[in-house]
Amino acid sequence: MRALVTGLSTYWGGRVAQALEQRPDVEVVVGVDTKDPRTPLERTEFVRTDSSHSILSRIVRATQVDTIVHTHLVVDSTRATSRTLHEINVIGTMNLLAAAGAPASPVRKVVLKSSGLVYGANKADPYCFREEMQRSGPANTPVERSLLEVEAFVRDFADDNPHVDVSLLRFANVLGVDIDTPFTAALRRPVVPEILGFDSRLQFVHEDDVVSALMYAIDNDIPGVYNVGADGNLPWSEVCAIVGKRRLALPFVFTNLAVEPARLLRLWDLPPEAMDLLRFGRTIDNSRYKRAGFRYAYTTATTVEAFAQALRLAGTIGDSRPTYRYEREVEDFFRHSPAVVRPDPA
Amino acid sequence: MPDRPECAPERTLDIAPASPPDVDLTEIEPGIGRDLVPLARTLPSAPAQVRRSDVDRWGRSEHFRALTRRAFDPVYKHWFRVEWEGFENLPEAGGALLVANHAGAIPPDAPSIMHGIEKDLGRPVYGLAENLFRALPVVGTLWSRSGGVAAHPDNAYRLLHDEQQLVLVFPEGTKATGKVYADRYRLRRFGRGGFVDIAMRAGVPVVPIAVMGAEETMPIVFKSSRLAKLLNLPYFPITANMLAFGPAGIVAYLPAKFRIRVLPPVHFDIAPNQERYSRSRVMEESERIRRMVQDALYDMLRKRRSVWFG
């Protein structure tokens, strides 16, 4: 397998590349991103690109990759302005799919990391979304709109390229001590927001399960759309109780306005789509991916518990995330210098 | 759970439903590759030990229900003096769709039916209601904790088919609770028969229930459509209770005697999980069930000597 990973400097890109490196059957791992990788990698070749991946078709042609793992969809709108969001998600995916679908392209598999955000959170929602269900309200936030657009491209691509296995995974909210999402950030604070009078049920997925889910789609030929979320759901009040945080109620009218001071003070940075979740909640049906053979290591409850335990440990020993800085010369030296004794590939 | 290609979009990416691979490929360990954080990850304890509340996936909490039952019991026993007929028609096991008539500006029939069944049959009842509730602060949460579920066809199907629960539905909806006193005990249209469709799909019987008494607990004298529009409500009633007790009338029910008659279950002789059910068959069954409830009500009203004493 020759693999290309987008978003190498993101948490997911880094972890997928690390996992791919460990496989003896993976000959080449190429990673692209706009920023330097933040994870130590052994043999992944890093190429810096612009946010819209415009040189991707050249990279694909030159490296003859057969598998593309697209982890670089921004699902956290606090990370990017709506313009960069559009650039990365929509234009980036467009260029990626154009590269993958070019004549005589060697690409045979595309795995994408999308989000349950495509379903939205609305009062008319069913309790549990199946993959074929449509969202019940219009998409009001840029990130939701861009993901819907991306999925439309992906659908077209899958129709036009039946010889390529396209797996699109929609993830529930990720919880893990290593990953920053609006929810993990809020749960690290001493007080956690809630909306007065609402106690919606949320579903989470553990960061390890996210990586195994991506790897499962890479390893198996399972084209299609799959929801990935841990079993069960929990009321937000219970999530906070397990993590051991007090809740502060926001008014149920003008909620986004009320949360603005907290945003400015960098207490919580909950985007509108997260506020919708606190109001209406969302659960996605994970049974299709289970039928495809995937097994979760965590349920929603154990995901929250694992997160709480990791937070408690971090509270005692401090942030133990290793600091790593990418040095191009060093990495090039280890990968390409004739002075380095590399194990024989055979 | 069987695949149901319900409400499928025009095009789906799904090329073929994935078949489970022959070899068990689930050996991928959770901490795949090297951990970014050199922390020992212990798999947490069983989910049951993690849980801090008993809120189920639908939002219902048996603990909370027990509290509300305790609070409602005096009202049930001494105010409405609920009496059941045909209680044995309720199934002790398996899913069933309970279909009842609806009445009262703020209908007391739903809590009464749920209370009686949970108390005397010992099975939880999930009540389907308009998703308007979900958007209400506090009320929506309490409603959900006591077994309220938004009336989405997929929710009903999951409850009935996958979980084999008892589900209570009022097919007349707000058309019934919003009718004026002069129209009492005259059943409105049973929606578009969606409840029959769901019961057929889920392969469960419909148990029709006729409730007498709820109409007189909070009769609507007249309705203000302008205020309803302003407040974005389905109707804005001026009830006899409000006229009699002032603001307290919003929650004070008149002590009408309740009689609830459970009719024999209606089984549909039709295969479940079909893609589509004949519209005419669905409408026919829906109308038949409506007729059954209406006839039972007329029969009960013929025997009723007093609104207050039954």
Characterize the structure shown.
The complex is a heterodimer of chains A (346) and B (310). Chain A is an alpha/beta fold. Chain A has one domain: NAD(P)-binding Rossmann-like Domain (Rossmann fold). Chain A is built from 13 helices and 13 strands. In chain A, the strands form four sheets. In chain A, strands 3-2-1-4-5-6-11 form a seven-stranded parallel beta sheet, sandwiched between helices. A two-stranded parallel ribbon of chain A has the order 7-10. In chain A, α1 (11-21) links the parallel β1 and β2. In chain A, α3 (82-100) runs parallel beside α4 (142-160). Chain A is globular and about 65 Å long. The two termini of chain A are 15 Å apart. The model of chain A has no long low-confidence stretch (mean pLDDT 91). Chain B is α/β, with parallel strands linked by helices. Chain B has one domain (54-219, 252-303): Glycerol-3-phosphate (1)-acyltransferase, CATH 3.40.1130.10. Chain B is built from eleven helices and nine strands. Chain B has helices at 47-50, 62-79, 109-120, 139-145, 153-162, 174-177, 194-202, 214-217, 225-231, 240-245, 279-303, and strands at 83-85, 96-100, 125-129, 148-150, 166-169, 206-212, 220-223, 237-239, 259-262. A seven-stranded mixed beta sheet of chain B has the order 1-9-6-2-5-3-4, sandwiched between helices. In chain B, α4 (139-145) links the parallel β3 (125-129) and β4. The N and C termini of chain B lie far apart (46 Å). Residues 1-40 of chain B have low confidence and may be disordered. Classes of the chains: A alpha/beta (346), B alpha/beta (310). The interface between A and B is large, with 83 and 62 residues.
CATH architecture assignment name of chain A: 3-Layer(aba) Sandwich
- The fraction of residues assigned to DSSP E strands of chain B is 5-15%
CATH superfamily of chain A: NAD(P)-binding Rossmann-like Domain
Based on secondary structure, the structural category of chain A is alpha/beta
Distance between the termini of chain A: 15 Å
Task: Please tell me how large the radius of gyration of chain A is.
Answer: 20 Å
How would you write the strand order of the largest sheet of chain B?
1-9-6-2-5-3-4
Could you state the oligomeric state of the chains shown?
heterodimer
Question: How many β-strand stretches of chain A?
Answer: 13
Write the H/E string of chain B, N to C. HHEEHEHEHEHHEHEHEHEH
Low-confidence stretches of chain B: 1-40
Query: What is the correct CATH architecture of chain B?
Result: 3-Layer(aba) Sandwich
* Structure annotation, total helices of chain A: 13
Give the domain tally of chain B. Answer: 1
- The CATH superfamily label of chain B reads Glycerol-3-phosphate (1)-acyltransferase
Shape of chain B: globular
Sheet with most strands of chain B: 7 strands, mixed
